[in-house]
Amino acid sequence: MMFTLDYMALVVVAALLIPAGAAAGQSAADYLGPAGVVPLSAPQPPARLIVDPPLPAPLARGQVFIQYRAENLRIEPVFGPKATEVTPRIGHLHVSLDHAPWHWADASGEPLILVGLPAGPHEVLITLADANHHPLDRKIVDFVVPATAANMPSSH
């Protein structure tokens, strides 16, 4: 009987810890969008880029970690005219730093990581692009790299 009471207490605690979204019936499709294995029959909503500010703890050490996610687009390393016909839509990022005339492409889907930047203010332009490199959405992230031993030039 003691085991039953402990088990029931555990069930009650677990039920209290379930996030409100899950209790309200939020499904994986609500969060992830349509399944990538089934072609869409309706027009896709516009792609959208959501970008967080750099993570504070690494930034305090001079390391810039920028997390992002794309809505209505899957980040994939697939390019070219035929790739724009894929549904759900696929694409990648173009990233530039401090108004540079060049950028790099990122199709990893992982956080952007910048290290070795000099202390001071910086700006990262992140552009969500389709498989033919046409821009779909963009965000600018401004931050300041603090003057720390981690990012100051070595005297050696």
Short description:
This protein is α+β, with helices and mostly antiparallel strands. Helices cover 19% and strands 33% of the residues.
SSE-based structural type? alpha+beta
| Whole-angstrom Rg | 21 Å
Mean pLDDT level: 82
Question: CATH top level of one domain?
Answer: Mainly Beta
Largest sheet: 5 strands, mixed
Work out the number of β strands. Answer: 9
The dominant shape is: globular
SSE topology string: HHHEHEEEEEEEE
Beta content: 25-35%
Kindly state the percentage of residues in helix: 10-25%
CATH architecture of one domain: Sandwich
Uncertain residue segments: 7-18
Cα separation of the termini: 70 Å
| CATH topology category name of one domain | Immunoglobulin-like
So how many helices?
4
InterPro entries: DUF6130 (IPR046133)
Keywords: Signal
Pfam family, one: DUF6130
Protein name: DUF4399 domain-containing protein
